[in-house]
Amino acid sequence: MAEAPLLSLRGVSKSFGASRAVLRGVDFDLAAGEYVAVMGESGVGKSTLLNLIAGLDRPDEGTIAFEGAELVALDDDARTRLRRRSMGFVFQAFHVLPYLTLAQNVGLPLLLNGIPAAEAAGRVAAMLRAVRLEERAQSLPRELSGGETQRVAIARALVHGPRLVLADEPTGNLDPETAATVLALLRERVKGEGSAGILVTHSAAAARTADRICVLGADGLRPA
Asked: Could you tell me what percentage of the chain is helix, strand and coil, using 3-state DSSP and rounding each to the nearest 5?
C-alpha cells in the first residue's frame, strides 16, 4: 500500500474580494522527504499558497491535509501548535531579530516548543555547525553578510526538526554567487534532516535545485 502524502491539497481556491481570484482548483501532493520548487509569474498567488499550507489563512474552497490533519477543520490554536511543531520558514527578508544573537535567533523555535534549555543549547550548537556559523554564535545579525544572515534563517527553520520547510523567495536579496551557496545549503539541510520542502522562486536556477518543479498559473499547479 502506498504511503499517504505528507501534504495533500485538493481543489484549493482563494479569492480576495469579489473580483480577485488568486488560486483556482489547486491540487498538489508532497511526499515525506521530497523537495519541490514552485514557480509562477508575480501576483499569481505563490505566497498565498504558502500561507494556506501554513494554516495562516483559510481557502474559500477545497481541502488541505497535513500530517493527516485537515487544516481547515482545526481552530486557530491547534493550527498554531501544528505550525510551531511541524513547520519551518525561510523568507526573502530573513526576519531575524536584530537584538538577539545568532544562537538566540536559532533557538527561538525550541523556546516556543518548550524544549528544555540544556537540550536546546545542544541542538542550536549542532545546527550552527551544520550551517558553518558555529564561531559566530554570539554575533548580532548586523555583523553578518546577507548570505550569513540567510544561513541563520535556515538554521532557525530546521532546528526543531520540522516535517515541512516553506521557503519563500529565500535568495531574492542575494547576489547570484551567494544565492547558489544558500540554495545548496538549504537543499542539503532539508534533505539531511529528513524534512520535506517547498521552495517558491522566480529563478529557474533556484528551481533546478529541487527534486521537481511545478508552475502555478490560472489553471492551477502543474508540472513544469
From this structure: 40, 25, 35
Please name the amino acid found at residue 66. F
Dihedral of CA atoms 54, 58, 63, 69 in degrees, nearest 10, equals: 50
Residue 75 to residue 94: CA distance in whole angstroms: 28
Q: Which CATH number fits domain 7-223: 3.40.50.300, 3.40.50.920, 3.50.50.60, 1.10.10.10?
A: 3.40.50.300
List the one residue out of 174, 221, 217, 176 whose CA is nearest residue 36.
Answer: 221
Pairing type for strands 212-217 and 220-223 reads antiparallel
All three cell numbers of 129: 555547525
pTM of the model: 0.94
Task: Quick: pLDDT tens for 100-150.
Answer: 999 999 999 999 999 999 999 999 999 999 999 999 999 999 999 999 999
